[in-house]
Write a structure and sequence with these properties.
By secondary structure, the protein is mostly beta strands. It has a single domain, classed as Sandwich (Immunoglobulin-like). The protein is built from no helices and seven strands. The model has no long low-confidence stretch (mean pLDDT 94).
């Protein structure tokens, strides 16, 4: 663990219907030797549609220069439209 990269971020996000969403907001990655790895984060999983209420799963993956990886998952919940 001590020399491995890490990804930090929320495990769950609740957003309002129609809100702007960026999958990398609040996500950070670093490595004790390589430093900031934020630009190396790969995002996978569901495409979050903020105009479709529901639950979406997003995965994050990062690797350091030694090809050691770290993963993180976030659940995004889009609320219902209150105008209907």
């Amino acid at each position: 663990m001590g020399n491995n990269p890490t990804i930090t971020g929320p495990n769950e996000i609740q957003i309002n219907y129609g809100s702007a969403f960026n999958a990398l907001d609040g996500i950070a990655a670093s490595d004790p030797k390589d430093g900031d790895l934020a630009l190396a984060i790969t995002v996978s999983g569901d495409t979050v549609n903020t105009r479709k209420p529901g639950t979406y799963k997003i995965g994050y993956l990062v690797a350091n220069q030694a090809c050691v990886t770290a993963q993180h998952g976030t659940t995004v919940r889009v609320g219902r439209c209150d105008n209907k």
